[in-house]
Amino acid sequence: MFNNFVYSLNKLSIIMKSLLTKVSLLAFGLLLTLNLNAQDFQGQATYISKSTMDLGRWGDRLSEEQKKQVKARLKNRLEKTYTLRFNKEESVFNEDDKLDVMSGATDSWGKNFTPGEQYKNVKTNTQIQDQEFYGKRFLVKDKLQDIEWVMGTETKQIGNYMCFKATASIPSDELSWYNFSWNKLRRQQPAEPAEGEDAETPEIPMTEVEAWYTPQIPVGHGPSEYWGLPGLILEVSAGDTVMLCSKLVINPEEKVEIKAPSKGKEITKKDYQDTIVEKMKEFRDNRGGRSRG
């Protein structure tokens, strides 16, 4: 009888602990919801981005010391820090300024092909981005990037937040519309088919994206082009780049400013990309003209 009594007490203790845990989680969820529903809800997240670069055949000709020097020189472009400021509907995402590790100057060349300050509104499906290209300022206005997320069941902890996995496949050119590469230009100008052959439809390069979001912060925001999940995106892996949230502050003491850029020539993403392509063609032709002379 005594053993049965002890067994009953242990069972009751387990039930009480389970009940207390559920009540605590419910209370936490309720407080979080009330907090997020507050009119002045804000947050600020810091992301660290790291990219890898394949030096290809050119790199095979370099010594290990030369490879180290190249990586040190490119560190400013391969490792970056960003800040995302957000409320329930809007966000502003921008890169933190950093000096070149070799020269002590800002990376002015790289800034021509990197994203400027980006404003997103998930309610109106609007993106406004401040871009500067060789001294000319553009205000790129367009809709948010279309992303068909596939929701997964895998979870992992990032800091104090439980995160769920989601994946997507997105056209690479749409993710890097502010950038330029000669490969992208070649794809836009396919070779003429031989006589009697049909023109081939150019293959569209895709980027596989893996994102981790937390329902504990139920807003549809994320870094860079990423958004649209039922929780703040804390980590994104896309191609050769990983972007991870290293710091997150909800309702900081100092109110953050969430304001869309407003200066520059208004243009769409596609028209901006066409502008870059034409300018780079001009640079190429001018350089070729000088070398022929």
Helix segment tally: 7
- N-to-C span: 106 Å
What is the average of the pLDDT values? 79
**Rg computed from alpha carbons, rounded to a whole number of angstroms:** 25 Å
Output the strand order for the largest sheet: 7-8-9-10-11-1-2-3-4-5-6-12
Shape: globular
| Number of beta-strand segments | 12
Give me the secondary-structure category.
alpha+beta
Give the percentage of residues in beta strands. Answer: 25-35%
The stretches of 5 or more residues where confidence is low (pLDDT under 50) are 14-34, 100-107
| Main sheet specs | 12 strands, mixed
- N-to-C SSE string, H for helix and E for strand: HEHHEEHEEEEEHHEEEEH
Tell me the helix content: 25-40%
Could you give a short description of this structure?
The chain has seven helices and twelve strands. The chain has helices at 2-37, 56-60, 64-78, 108-111, 172-175, 182-188, 269-292, and strands at 43-51, 79-86, 90-95, 118-121, 126-133, 136-143, 150-158, 161-171, 206-214, 232-238, 241-250, 265-267.
Task: Describe what this molecule looks like in 3D.
This protein is an alpha+beta fold and 293 residues long. The protein contains 7 helices and 12 strands. It has helices at 2-37, 56-60, 64-78, 108-111, 172-175, 182-188, 269-292, and strands at residues 43-51, 79-86, 90-95, 118-121, 126-133, 136-143, 150-158, 161-171, 206-214, 232-238, 241-250, 265-267. A 12-stranded mixed β-sheet has the order 7-8-9-10-11-1-2-3-4-5-6-12. It is globular and about 60 Å long. 19% of the residues are buried. Residues 14-34 and 100-107 have low confidence and may be disordered.
